[in-house]
Amino acid sequence: MNLPEIKKLIEIFNTSSQITRLSLKQDNFELKLDKTPSTAPAIPQATHQATMQTAVQAPAQPQIHTPAPQSAPATPESSAGKSGDFITSPMVGTFYHRPSPDADPYVKVGDVIKKGQTIGIIEAMKIMNEIEAEFDCKILSIETGDGQPVEYGSHLIKVEKV
Q1: What single string gives the DSSP state of each residue in the chain?
Q2: What's the whole-model pTM score?
């Protein structure tokens, strides 16, 4: 399924008063649309492979649901209003805690790490970019779930400088 077909499908979905949910699966492509109110922004996503996602900006109401990440991300309320030091995302992409799905995570809560140690990777444009600690620190919490999309400046890990 290509972008014009997805846009046409979303347009039809938006204008139809009888359809409130739509789910479409074709080969390695899955699309789910839902008109029920939500506080999350509407971002349709097409999944071609487990590690590759293509996002398309959608008109107002439809929202596409994707499977939950392997580990639960921290809720926005958990980091809002809390001060502290964070390792933040230097780019837009998908954050991964481990080098491969069956490998151990780079860091865990409670680990003390050194400056330059890899804390995770961000996939951007099919390139895996290692994210390193900028200072010696102790991991207090992991703020972003494995496989979670991140933006520039997103809090990845809450740390305490040592």
Answers
A1: --HHHHHHHHHHHHH-SS-SEEEEEETTEEEEEE-S--SS----EEESSSS-EEE----SS-B---PPPSSPPPPHHHHTT--SEEEE-SSSEEEESSSSTTSPPS--TT-EE-TT-EEEEEEETTEEEEEE-SS-EEEEEE-S-TTEEE-TT-EEEEEEE-
A2: 0.49
